[in-house]
Design goal:
Layout lengths: L1 E6 L4 H12 L2 E9 L6 H13 L3 E6 L22 H4 L11 H16 L3 E3 L15 H14 L1 H4 L5 E3 L7 H10 L24 H12 L10
Parallel strand pairs: 1-2, 1-4, 2-3, 4-5
Length: about 230
Amino acid sequence: MISCVLLLSGGLDSATCFAIAKSLGYEVHALTVLYGQRHLFEAEAAEKIAHIMGAKEHRYVSVNLNAIGGSALTDEIAIPKGRSPEEMSHGIPVTYVPARNTVMLSIALGYAEVIGASDIFVGVNAVDYSGYPDCRPEFIQAFEKLANVATKAGVEGRQTIIHAPLIALTKAQIIERGIKLGVDYSLTSSCYDPTDDGVACGECDACQIRLRAFKDLGLTDPIRYR
């Protein structure tokens, strides 16, 4: 069985990405990065997902991006609530974490090289998202190019492939795909501002995008909301 490294946040997208990787025959080595996020409940969700979905291994790595701040997810900045779809479609919100995906993919790249894996899966999405520059195809393509000149494996001819299977899907399409693959979305956590026991706020961008997608599919989101 071919091994891959999968960035597992504990959210809806990464859980779906996990299911896709498994459906393609990969043995999944899950990696959760604790980057100083205030909404740490998602890391607990990641642990449950890794166990139930059958990760070969699940590792945590800590990189405290809260030391530089600059984001509502890592700093004492208010989480935007109640934004309209039109507001979400313009500009880059304060929930953007500077360099987060670059840092996380870099750690995944190192982990992949250590275990001899050539494939890295990441659940970024460029359709129903909040305008983050590091969720776009251009970023993934640029990082893959970097990966293949930055490592011993790349220099020796073992090419790294960055898989972003959700990048061109809407959130509803992602959920549909996950349901077909048996993803239990009650295990996931997407909220930027949940309670300590994981109850979602229902008002942040992530909650609104998620709720709208389930509604569009005629389904009820199985997680708890305030």
